[in-house]
Amino acid sequence: MIVNADNLIATVQRMADEDAIERVLYTYAFHLDAAEPQGMLPLFTEDLYVSYGNHGASGAEAYLHTLANPDTGIAAFFAGTSHHVSNVVIDFVDENTANVRSVLLAWHKYNRERPNGIVYGRYHDVFVRTDEGWKITRREQQTAGTDNYHARPEKMLMIDRSSREQSGE
Amino acid sequence: MIVNADNLIATVQRMADEDAIERVLYTYAFHLDAAEPQGMLPLFTEDLYVSYGNHGASGAEAYLHTLANPDTGIAAFFAGTSHHVSNVVIDFVDENTANVRSVLLAWHKYNRERPNGIVYGRYHDVFVRTDEGWKITRREQQTAGTDNYHARPEKMLMIDRSSREQSGE
Amino acid sequence: MIVNADNLIATVQRMADEDAIERVLYTYAFHLDAAEPQGMLPLFTEDLYVSYGNHGASGAEAYLHTLANPDTGIAAFFAGTSHHVSNVVIDFVDENTANVRSVLLAWHKYNRERPNGIVYGRYHDVFVRTDEGWKITRREQQTAGTDNYHARPEKMLMIDRSSREQSGE
């Protein structure tokens, strides 16, 4: 595109929105790796829908339960994690909604004795602009594959390698 | 740099170009990981030159043959891949040409029974602005190293660790 | 945020600063992976402070000694490295100072015979604007965990998974 006086403010607005959306992606990873579910909730809308294939959540309360559950939550299961998010591609549907795709490498150290596990995959998110800034209203995690991860591929939503189009694309 | 009324439009133009170039890098990875060679071709100019050390291609037709070959192409060789592109540095040579450097972690699951392989390396690209947007006209993949990857280092273009300057720098 | 004629130049200035800061992060990784300590020094202020937990440096001369030492420096210890930096979050303290957080995956091939080692962690940096551009004046590396890395966790600064706030946040 060619930037000129007519589209200047709209172009910079789009870039500021992209910056804000990326920051949400990275802040999510930050709080997840710090095992702080309470810090993750404000990044989502109240009516969020999150799907990881073998599990998920509808609504903030259910999602917090998934993340913070003393038996199966982040801190209960993992001694440490590291979420590396890259390849962020943002498509605005309208000025208050965006489809966002990113690539994830998620390393996990377990509390129990077993090799560290890695998930290679993608987030397909829908973001909406709210009075408190951009938030995730829908997140689907698709998996390319794993190394030594506890969840088996058939329990995950695997990336389709034959179709021409992907959800979120 | 200090942004002011005189350089404002040129600064935003450069940022818009950077956004567009990054998007090409990530769209390449997206279609590669989906095993869709047809989606990768529009990201390159017709006269592309691609080098991975032990193999490469000159021109779109040869490149498509490399990617889509039923015996040795992406889908023939790999059951899944995940390409993580980061550390993107863009140097504009002129307003229609840019040298672009990025860092790659490429995970590969093989169709045959063997451990998953990882390549750690870099893309050194030359981008040109076309009527259809920014495209890659030259891509050289340099390799820092591998874990369990099938290709041996002597068949790859290894990153030079002694010289002061690197190609594309 | 809403971009308008009043905040336009300040918004673009902030984005240009963010671009420049990210470029320093990636240039650091580039020269580190090329085993070129001399190329890393200009990215830091003279009075730099760097901490990796089990070792560190105060001042440019001490840091160069750490990096270039023929017995324990980068080239002495590693046959190759690959530093993947993502999840960059920048908070401006004032127009000439920024707290910068990023996520790191650092792969290492050793000169001696042992498995390749990976560090998963974060950089918490303080950047300052100088006459020669943005530079790092303070860098602390926090570690989420490792795979086959030679340094033991108790020698590293591990990411706190219980506290609500992290340094640099």
Automatic annotation (TrEMBL), chains A, B, C:
Listed SUPFAM superfamilies: NTF2-like
InterPro entries: NTF2-like_dom_sf (IPR032710), SnoaL-like (IPR037401)
Region (Disordered): 139-169
A Pfam family it matches: SnoaL_4
Compositional bias of kind Basic and acidic residues: 149-169
Residue ranges of every copy of the SnoaL-like domain listed in the record: 13-139
Superkingdom per UniProt: Bacteria
Name recorded for this polypeptide: SnoaL-like domain-containing protein
Organism of provenance: Leifsonia kafniensis
